[in-house]
Amino acid sequence: MYYQRNLPHIMPSGATLFITFRLAGSLPGQVIEQLRKEYSQPEHTQEDAEQSYARQRRYFGAFDQLLDADDTGPTWLRQAEIAAVVGEALHFRSGIEYTLWAYCLMANYVHLLVSLPEIEHQPFYRILQSLKARTARRCNELLGRSAVAFWQAESYDHYVRDGAEMDRIVAYILNNPVKAGLVEDWTKWPHTYLNPEW
């Protein structure tokens, strides 16, 4: 499955996907635009798959670093009750619409690693839209907000190529709160999950 908004999204059946979605307003528009300019490939250059992947990783790393450093936007996921809504929604769909391998809820974004079934009932981007819509409604209710965007519309996704890359991504997800200086050991972060079958 492929579709494109501002970024290309490749989500084939049977794939393992690393997804990041963030709160609406978590980064200023001009910062995002600057990152996009830096990420876009110059028209006059050709790059192979390895160079493209390296460029994508740099872009994502810069994006992630800005989210961890920025506290000017909303940080609703710091609230245990709000984080619980999102965590429960991720678990609810596991085993039905995807296999949930790992996630980490930070103050203003979510990292998620899932494997899709070989035969999907519906495209994963629709599942993600539904998950974000349901959690947005419930979280906005808890926050006393109405008709206000909770999640940024577009998510970042990466198609995981092999087992070694999957291992690196799991470690990256789990160690996010450690890297951000919130805990010394990932197991101490209350909003991190690792599938026991891992």
Give your account of this protein's structure.
This protein has 198 residues and is α+β, with helices and mostly antiparallel strands. It has helices at residues 29-39, 49-69, 80-93, 124-143, 163-174, 176-179, and strands at 2-4, 8-10, 16-22, 99-105, 109-115, 156-159, 192-194. It has one domain: Transposase IS200-like (Alpha-Beta Plaits), CATH 3.30.70. It contains 6 helices and 7 strands; from the N terminus they run E-E-E-H-H-H-E-E-H-E-H-H-E. Strand 1 and strand 2 (8-10) form a beta hairpin. The radius of gyration is 17 Å and the shape is globular. The protein starts with a strand and ends with a strand. Residues 1-9 have low confidence and may be disordered.
List the helices and strands and how they pair.
Layout (H helix, E strand, L loop, with lengths): L1 E3 L3 E3 L5 E7 L6 H11 L9 H21 L10 H14 L5 E7 L3 E7 L8 H20 L12 E4 L3 H12 L1 H4 L12 E3 L4
Antiparallel strand pairs: 1-2, 3-5, 3-6, 4-5, 4-7
Helix pairs in contact: 1-2, 3-4
Query: Based on the structure given, which CATH architecture is correct?
Result: 2-Layer Sandwich
Mean pLDDT: 83
Strand order of the largest sheet: 6-3-5-4-7
CATH superfamily: Transposase IS200-like
Oligomeric state of the chains present here = single chain
> Class in CATH?
Alpha Beta
- CATH fold annotation: Alpha-Beta Plaits
Element order: H for helix, E for strand = EEEHHHEEHEHHE
